[in-house]
Amino acid sequence: xxxxxxxxxxxxxxxxxxxxxxxxxxxxxxxxxxxxxxxxxxxxxxxxxxxxxxxxxxxxxxxxxxxxxxxxxxxxxxxxxxxxxxxxxxxxxxxxxxxxxxxxxxxxxxxxxxxxxxxxxxxxxxxxxxxxxxxxxxxxxxxxxxxxxxxxxxxxxxxxxxxxxxxxxxxxxxxxxxxxxxxxxxxxxxxxxxxxxxxxxxxxxxxxxxxxxxxxxxxxxxxxxxxxxxxxxxxxxxxxxxxxxxxxxxxxxxxxxxxxxxxxxxxxxxxxxxxxxxxxxxxxxxxxxxxxxxxxxxxxxxxxxxxxxxxxxxxxxxxxxxxxxxxxxxxxxxxxxxxxxxxxxxxxxxxxxxxxxxxxxxxxxxxxxxxxxxxxxxxxxxxxxxx
Length: 387
Prior knowledge:
Blueprint: E1 5-6, E2 11-16, E3 22-28, H1 38-48, E4 65-67, E5 71-72, E6 75-76, E7 81-86, H2 108-115, H3 131-149, E8 152-160, E9 163-164, H4 186-199, E10 205-212, H5 226-235, E11 240-245, H6 256-259, E12 263-264, E13 267-268, E14 276-277, E15 280-281, E16 286-292, E17 302-305, E18 311-314, H7 328-351, H8 367-375
Antiparallel strand pairs: 1-2, 2-3, 3-7, 4-7, 5-6, 8-9, 8-10, 10-16, 11-16, 12-13, 14-15, 17-18
């Protein structure tokens, strides 16, 4: 099986299956000299791990990370960093009933036709269990981006099923099990999830990730565009069926006068482009939104076929997330981080010596400047009330 490596200069190769002895990855290309220990990685893994609330799978995994190489005296050495996470709570017997059938909405049928063999235990290589190692690698990327460039990467759940969630404050995100930036919405959402789980059905979700502090200039103008690589990475997350950069599909109904992000000496007046133009970062926040489909592993009867092509009824029992999007926020953040660090290193390799005389404008103009422009005042005509 090919296709297990992400990145050009910062390369992550993952291995392992959901019910195998362990999962892991090799991170190649991490710059040397960065302080790193297991605790730096464990913090991110703990945000994603199963069993953290009643709304997700009750599989009990500590997701304890082991650093096998690439770190000496708590510093990265520039050599490959091997990370290992041992599986501790496999329950393979839960999947015996589907060994000869294909679950609707899963990769079972496509895997069987492509490889002629499949690990049916928890989905094997296709399981979202593999995303733990992406989060581990992403923790390294996040740390380097923050220390070297001041980049902050944060995500939050913006829609759960039909429930859109208004943004209140980033501080709320890690204070609730749903990763929503709105503490007042949690009780209603939890009641919705309780009812959904009781019904045996599932739902989808929408997640937005914002990378702040990304410098202008990252990305390539044709192949290797920053937005294209972000879209590819996000679509590589299990169950993701849609990706938007900035305004995304909302740009279809916008006029050019609304969508184009005007610039002033004080900063950009909007960010409908999501921080990327022509495949290159603008210095604004990079904004990516993903759509996660409903969980396909449900206990309700679904029509399918078996290996001989005969019709069967499939219902999946075991421990499953009624909404896989709930635990996807740390995964989405990690994938954004992995793409950004790769482009940071690629930019440094070719363009580190580029100097222009044009000043770099702020990512966003102050609210007072935007208000003056909306009134039709000149940018350089300060409001006397602001003096």
